[in-house]
Amino acid sequence: MHPQKINGDFKGKNILSLDQFTPKDLSILFKITPKMKRIAKAAKPSKILEGTITTLLFYEPSSRTFGSFSAAVKQLGGQTVEIQNPQAFSSMAKGETFEDTIRVFEAYSDAIVIRHPTQGSAQKASEVTRFTPIISAGDGVGEHPTQALLDLFTIYEKWGRLDGLVGVLAGDLLNGRTIHSLIRGLLLFPKNTLYLLSPRQLRLSRVDFLSFSKRKIKLIEIESEKDMPKNAHFWYWTRVQKERFASLGEYEKVKNRFVVTKELLRKHGNKNMILMHPLPRVGEISTEVDSDERSVYLRSQIRNGMYIRMALLSLVLGKI
Amino acid sequence: MHPQKINGDFKGKNILSLDQFTPKDLSILFKITPKMKRIAKAAKPSKILEGTITTLLFYEPSSRTFGSFSAAVKQLGGQTVEIQNPQAFSSMAKGETFEDTIRVFEAYSDAIVIRHPTQGSAQKASEVTRFTPIISAGDGVGEHPTQALLDLFTIYEKWGRLDGLVGVLAGDLLNGRTIHSLIRGLLLFPKNTLYLLSPRQLRLSRVDFLSFSKRKIKLIEIESEKDMPKNAHFWYWTRVQKERFASLGEYEKVKNRFVVTKELLRKHGNKNMILMHPLPRVGEISTEVDSDERSVYLRSQIRNGMYIRMALLSLVLGKI
Amino acid sequence: MHPQKINGDFKGKNILSLDQFTPKDLSILFKITPKMKRIAKAAKPSKILEGTITTLLFYEPSSRTFGSFSAAVKQLGGQTVEIQNPQAFSSMAKGETFEDTIRVFEAYSDAIVIRHPTQGSAQKASEVTRFTPIISAGDGVGEHPTQALLDLFTIYEKWGRLDGLVGVLAGDLLNGRTIHSLIRGLLLFPKNTLYLLSPRQLRLSRVDFLSFSKRKIKLIEIESEKDMPKNAHFWYWTRVQKERFASLGEYEKVKNRFVVTKELLRKHGNKNMILMHPLPRVGEISTEVDSDERSVYLRSQIRNGMYIRMALLSLVLGKI
């Protein structure tokens, strides 16, 4: 079952997948997000979500996403019910179904943000609720739509558009959930070119590659930094995830295959590009480039996560 | 030591047992509860508990009760201090007594909601505090007064009274804490008749049966669905708790002895009755009856838990 | 690197050590703290921290300190983002550095309160943030500045001054973090005399003793209660920490060497003194003296912890 398209009307919609968004939906969201930035920075408290309760139902720990959603609700004067300790799901231990748990929390909540280790859980939750929108905060190898939205917004904020861009995607392109979402988002806009830099074992799967490149995007696979374009608008670096490898030796061989250093930026970067990373990073971006103005991963990219969630919650709860 | 009677004045009282309530107390509480429902559904935020702090001290996980109390406080503009991870009780690990812990949290709180695995803990906490009311959220096999209150309110909301009712109580009547509380609540009112449906091993204990039936309630033990009355006002179904059985074989034999199905409702139910369950359910109510209008366990019964807690907190904190 | 002196201006400062405070800084803080007491007791909600978010980043459990900070923020109308379950630091498990985690939470927060098992962590956090003040809630055997401040305030509140006082410090003077901080605080003021009562194995280290007594404080080591002064302004009792001993036998020998009883208070105390303890206590103060008016450890000392944290947060966030 495909989640419902947004089609310009966010109110009451579940947010499960980037596929629900048209370019127009993104444009609505991206027009509101800078307002959220101003609200978060203002001394005066916001009352946009006053009187609403958003339940954060985290079946697995994720301190960053949890903190970002918790702060987003509170920045807007809303309240949260926070269930973030998996052991707290005592009723689950007693054999309660996932569906019943969701229905119970629906009774307390104006919206439910759900994080779950199993792909499809957010969708499943949305099929159970009757009045309460579900917002996915990532489910296993499935989608993590708010991460994708903040990535797209970060590029949009810098360049004022999402078409006609050149990007470099690096790292684990085979398993990287954020990479797949980002490509899917950019597919919505014409004339984008993406350079895919990865070790051979971690290349985008052939199925994905073909399905993506059939559409109006240009994908170029490269295996060495020296093939990177000089005119990139953004680099999007990712972590090689240890947990994806059967053998540790195999992991060790590729984990630091591509590392962003001052040297790499000097040789292959350009003055205006931005350097992004979905975090956590382990060693694939050297800390020596943290203070570089082009590095946005520990600055605007993080903060944009909170702003985009503020905007999304306001829209879905029909408060803006 | 018996907890203090409420006698029409909730302010500052500990809420530890249904025995504290007279019919008049229930009537006060049940008059306020629908107002809480309107507040929860209103777009305008409530300020009834503004400026108050309620500490949720959960020594064992209970996601449903925790969420319900957390939401109740926040629906009314109050704030919570939430200690729900038993490992967080570091001072306990260092040998601090329960009494000292309670006194510490008393200093931060206008009210303390306590959940504890050991019977009598809520009472013990209430003997230690000097100004801060304790509200029990269940302690072991002891009482869970807010569950009992929400069950009674759910029946009252449907029928407008708590006397002259016919009910069916099914499942584990021997160990079911909610069953005992419900019977105790209905004992306060005249002319009620309860049919007790359970496997022989899980019948109400003789001691309880005799003590209950000596008072103005009629208890009728039955062992088969075909002996159920046609004119019941409510069915109250419960889970057979695996943890009560020494042998798994014994459990397997009785766990699904009585299951509510469409068929059962058609054959033995009536048009106006309601079907209740304290949750979690495991298999004793088939999901096929979830959408039946008479099924209130995943709808008003859950929501009433939040409303009754809102009403109780408002009264105990003297804000209404 | 030494943390920045406060020098009369709290706004935006990290709070890492008592060494940042001059007597004038303490006087500013102690003038505001009683106002916080009035706010906490008032029925009218405060809006001092309205619109601000304080993240409580607890890398180890500490229910008392966590609850105190959480309540302090909420008493002032502020909001918290609460990360108190170490398992929730999923990104850490994936190999994220402490520095990156701090930067992430900086993006969501107006202030960060950090508790950490490793000495120096709060300082390390403060070197990473750019705009967000760090407030230490204790890091390992390092400092726990808000505990020291509440202890000093409790003495100040009773006596109206922090000079010319006679005190008894008892228990584990070798390892007791709160003892060291209290002595350091009293060193800022002239003419104080401290009697140090401890088993020989747990005496203040020679290095500390000499460094302290070189300054304008008089330290007198005693080994028996009968050498205690009759004119003490306060007794500060502490727990002998089991975890400090290699052998359990060694611990058992000294753990209850000095216990405050009614008898001890009658024989060696005086009418006006106060009896303090940083909690948790295990057996070193008999519960029979809890109701004695001089016992402040479960009363004003606890509450002062919340008030001093309210004052500190208001000052650091520039809201007062």
Radius of gyration of chain A: 20 Å
What series of H and E elements makes up the topology of chain A? HEHEHHEHEHEHEHEEHHEH
Separation of termini of chain A?
29 Å
Identify the strand order in the major beta sheet of chain A. Answer: 7-6-5-8-9
Give the amount of beta strand of chain A, in percent: 5-15%
As a percent range, the share of helical residues of chain A equals 25-40%
Helix tally of chain A equals 11
Q: CATH topology of the largest domain in chain A, what is it called? A: Rossmann fold
CATH superfamily of the largest domain in chain A: Aspartate/ornithine carbamoyltransferase
Interface with most residues = A-B, 28 and 34 residues
Oligomer: homotrimer
Number of strands of chain A: 9
Average pLDDT taken over every residue of chain A: 93
Low-confidence stretches of chain A: none
User: Class by helix and strand content of chain A?
Assistant: alpha/beta
**Number of discrete domains of chain A:** 2
> Under the CATH scheme, which architecture of the largest domain in chain A would be assigned?
3-Layer(aba) Sandwich
Largest sheet, strands/sense/barrel of chain A: 5 strands, parallel
What is the level 1 CATH name of the largest domain in chain A? Answer: Alpha Beta
The best one-word shape of chain A is: globular
